[in-house]
Specification:
Distance between the termini: 68 Å
Strand order of the largest sheet: 10-11-15-14
Structural class: alpha+beta
Strand content: 15-25%
Order of helices and strands: HHHHHHHEHEEEEEEEEEEHEEEEHH
Shape: elongated
Length: 390
Amino acid sequence: MSTKDFIEKDYYKVLGVPKDATEAEIKKAYRKLAREFHPDANKGNAKAEERFKEISEANDVLGDPKKRKEYDEARALFGNGGFRPGPGAGGSFNFDLGDLFGGSGTSTQGGGFGGGLGDVFGGLFNRGGAGTTRTQPRRGQDIDTEVTLSFTEAIEGATVPLRMSSQAPCKACSGTGDKNGTPRVCPTCVGTGQVARGSGGGFSLTDPCPDCKGRGLIAEHPCLECKGSGRAKSSRTMQVRIPAGVTDGQRIRLRGKGAPGERGGPAGDLYVVVHVGEHPVFGRKGDNLTVTVPVTFTEAALGGEVRVPTLGGPAVTLKLPPGTPNGRTMRARGKGAVRKDGTRGDLLVTVEVRVPKDLSGKARDALEAYREATAGEDPRAELFEAAKGD
């Protein structure tokens, strides 16, 4: 990406969020757009694939607090016409913006800039400044993908196969772009991969070299497989371990599992967005699992022991105290989801008193006798007393 592109790209607009959006809002917007434009859901749609790349690039910056801060600072300094003095400005204000990005930090007018912007842009896009040769090892691209797990797999962890497509060094030419494996240094940019471009007002911007496309090398005999780019589309399937306890929508970073680097550079990272299916019995609240257990009227009134199922383990027995009300929640410790430290949350058991639909004659007679024995009690008396006081 050129400096001009970086300054003018509005990642907030790409994700459709305001500049003061919270991390949660950015994450929610990214998930919605990623699902809509994911290549798997838009087979053969080049526009959707390009849109997905834009969304992923925006999320890579705005989803990282450090990168987002650097991006905001750079946009505030150079975006929207910043630092464009007119001809009437006092004295000569003639310095090369490429120097700032390269980290020289020196102005021809008093008061240097301290080289901070080179760090800003280098941290965001893993690129050097104008004086850095692009023929050095270069880090591979990050890859975004999604995976759907069952409820149990999310709680216990799972190893899943992921098939990914990315740009990798061309095998035919070993990534050189030249079928003979002997590319030469680009004479236009002298191997830097960048050329300076005047923008008026005494500034100079840098763009990728048009002759070598930013590689710093030119293939005398272009490889027939990659057309001289040195990169080719590669598909691979890898087994990825998803840790126990992941939640729906969680984004996991797997270092070094992205696209391979160039010229011996490190591989990028793989970002996996996890989707978790529902369970017919259990629910989840943070690190705790939830379950609703039906009990009879007599069990709630007289008390007793109730067996409760657990996820993937033996049942537990909970003691129900006499007079247990409907909706009461009890806790089975250590039967919940796995935490980051390896311990487990709890199983929250909610009691649901079931009223029988059909009664035998004997059961009906017993309930009639119970009603006569408790005829003097009014469970709504306190309710009406409280209503009078208002």
